[in-house]
Automatic annotation (TrEMBL):
<dbReference type="GO" id="GO:0016491">
    <property type="term" value="F:oxidoreductase activity"/>
</dbReference>
<dbReference type="GO" id="GO:0008610">
    <property type="term" value="P:lipid biosynthetic process"/>
</dbReference>
<feature type="domain" description="Fatty acid hydroxylase">
    <location>
        <begin position="4"/>
        <end position="133"/>
    </location>
</feature>
<dbReference type="GO" id="GO:0005506">
    <property type="term" value="F:iron ion binding"/>
</dbReference>
<dbReference type="InterPro" id="IPR006694">
    <property type="entry name" value="Fatty_acid_hydroxylase"/>
</dbReference>
<dbReference type="Pfam" id="PF04116">
    <property type="entry name" value="FA_hydroxylase"/>
</dbReference>
<protein>
    <submittedName>
        <fullName>Fatty acid hydroxylase</fullName>
    </submittedName>
</protein>
Length: 142
């Protein structure tokens, strides 16, 4: 259940980024601040993240058998924390030496600098491929 929760988080992250952070106010306004100035510390998304984690942790206990949902929630939380760590690294200016991280770094740079309607995934480009929002090969950043 933990890996299932982690995979579910990557999809949730994609959907939240694409449809909430780029579509719904006030999340959109807060998120576009991050697009304009990634280095600027943002209080609200941290609160947003804490609310998400709080929901993941408390929801399983509303169910009659909390065991499997609690493990699923652990996977969601691991996904959330990994995403925060990876996203932080993606905003350093030096390209990572790890191949996977370097690819994520290029795609996130593309999302910020070339096309905000593509490359929504932080930890994986899988959901971008599934939903047709991968970076266009002819529009790569230098
Ligand atoms: Zn970013
Ligand atoms: Zn964005």
């Amino acid at each position: 259940m933990i890996p299932a929760g982690f995979v579910a988080w990557t999809l949730l992250e994609y959907l939240l980024h694409r449809f909430a952070l780029h579509g719904i106010e006030p999340f959109r306004r807060w998120h576009l601040e991050h697009h304009r100035d990634p280095a600027k510390p943002l209080q609200t998304p941290v609160l947003f993240s804490l609310m998400l984690v709080g929901a993941f942790v408390s929801l399983p206990f509303a169910l009659p058998d909390a065991h499997a949902p609690a493990l699923f929630a652990v996977g969601l939380c691991i996904g959330q924390v990994s995403q925060e760590i990876v996203h932080h690294r993606l905003h350093r200016t030096d390209s990572p030496s790890n191949r996977w991280l370097a690819a994520r770094w290029r795609e996130h740079g593309y999302h910020h600098e070339v096309d905000g309607n593509a490359a929504y995934g932080t930890c994986t480009g899988f959901w971008d491929r599934v939903f047709g929002t991968s970076p266009r090969q002819d529009r790569h950043i230098s």
